[in-house]
Amino acid sequence: MEKKEFGTHISEMLNQNLEALFNHILAMGGMVERQMDNALQALGASDVDKANEIILFDKMINDAEMEIDHLCARVLARQQPTASDLRLILVAIRVAIDLERMGDEIVKLAKMVIAFDRINQVKCSEVEGYIELVDISSRSNRMLKSALDDFARVSTDGASQIIAEEELIDDVFAEVMSQLKTSLQSKPDCFECLMEMIIALRAAERVSDHARNIVESIVYLVNGHDVRNMDEERLQTLLTKLQAEEG
User: Fold this and answer.
1) Domain boundaries in the chain?
2) pTM: predicted TM-score of the whole model, two decimal places
3) Which homologous superfamily is 3-246 in?
4) pLDDT tens digit string along 188-209?
5) Under a CB-based contact definition with an 8 Å cutoff, are residues 43 and 138 in contact?
6) pLDDT in tens, 162-183
């Protein structure tokens, strides 16, 4: 499937609605990108005001997801979408859900900044796991940006790299979680801060999971292949083949 197919229907209203749906996803993705950028700034500066802005802005992301859902429902109810149109509608619903859940996870990062300020004004950078948190958050942010770029171009060019990056993030996450669990036992006086860090790390790791989900949805949009339950070796082989076909 290519983006130009959105404007090839006899019904001009259907063309407009599919284009609007596509653009709504990109707009919502841009909102989540900004949230993640803001979260990284809040983490770096222990900026409570920025963290509170993130929490307040999350409602707009939720509203964007609802608007996409309603638009999909209108197209299905009032028009006659083709099979490829139905793929776009299904992918739009999936991607919107992943973006909304990303927003929820980013809010958890913001709440950690606020919690540390409440706990005797502890700076994020002073807590064990901070370096890994920034690393995972930054990588997840890059994955999101790359996934949205692929969606905008209706392409799977970045899919292999994004999926490989998600695997690397899993390794970093597993290692730091093991370290923090040990610290919970050996440093009872730091229990509250360490628990907040664990929650934030899990949230950052989940952002990468949702970015991978978006990539898998893009593969389905472009080629009709459902790769959600495919093992890593078969998936990478398929992506290599698809990218060669696109090229």
Assistant:
1) 3-246
2) 0.90
3) Phosphate transport system protein phou homolog 2; domain 2 (1.20.58.220)
4) 888 999 999 999 999 999 999 9
5) no
6) 999 999 999 999 999 999 999 9
